[in-house]
Amino acid sequence: MNNQNSRRDYPLDRDDEEYPPGPPANPQRQQSAPTTVYDPAGYTVKQPSPGKRDAIMRCAQEGERKYEEYIGIKAQKSREVTRGPPKIIGGRPLSQTELQEKWRLTEREGKRNQLLAEYEKKQRRAQYQRDEKEKEERQIKGKKQKARELALKQQRDERDRDLAHQQVMREQRMCQFYQPSMSSQNQSSCKLSRAEQIEKQKIEEQEFIKQQKIAEMAKRKRRIDYKSEEKRKEETEIQDKKMRARELANKQASEQKELHIAQTEEMRQRRLQRYDKHYN
């Protein structure tokens, strides 16, 4: 009997009892979230207000976002932005040991990639330095080669001039030696002409090079003078503009000062008139 009474007092202990229905729905409050919920046993449970519930949801979303950022920061060491290793492989969740192993492998891969990147950077820097050194050596070698070629050319020119001069002197001596026994026609056809022509040509070339250098120097001087004159004109224009702006500013300041003095004097006169009118 006691068991029956106790089962009758607690309808939840009996399987054949129906759960009591909840309160009827209010159509006027369908749009707003209910603050009270009826559980199947007929007991009321207080729900938080909408503002409080929104605050709780925001806090939960903020916590999830921070957790995802933490995972992303840890996984970023592997040179790719991820949200960590997948927690489900083959349809089953990973255990804590498997997760730790996955993290360890991920971090090791990230360190390996970092070391490889540093090694590649060092290799590129060393290759760049080697290329720059080879470029400088080639430039120095080219300058030395050009200087050597120029010196050899000058030596050849000097030797050719000396040989030409010696040939001229030899032919002059020969002409002078054979001159008494030569007729006037043979004297005019002396072989001195070819050497003289070579010497004259070399002298003309040297004179032409000298005149060309003088012309280039004069042209360079005219260009420098023109640039300096243009610069001087620009500076003069800038100074004139500054002077005109300064004069205009001084003129405006003086006009403002005079206007202020006139307005002050006019206000003073008005005050005096009001004073005289009030007391006289």
UniProtKB/TrEMBL annotation:
Q: Where is this region: Disordered?
A: 1-54, 77-97, 110-163, 217-280
Annotated Basic and acidic residues bias: 1-13, 128-140, 147-163, 225-280
* Top-level taxon in the UniProt lineage: Eukaryota
Q: Which residues form a coiled coil?
A: none
Q: What is this protein called?
A: Epithelial-stromal interaction protein 1
Supply the source organism for this entry. Answer: Oopsacas minuta
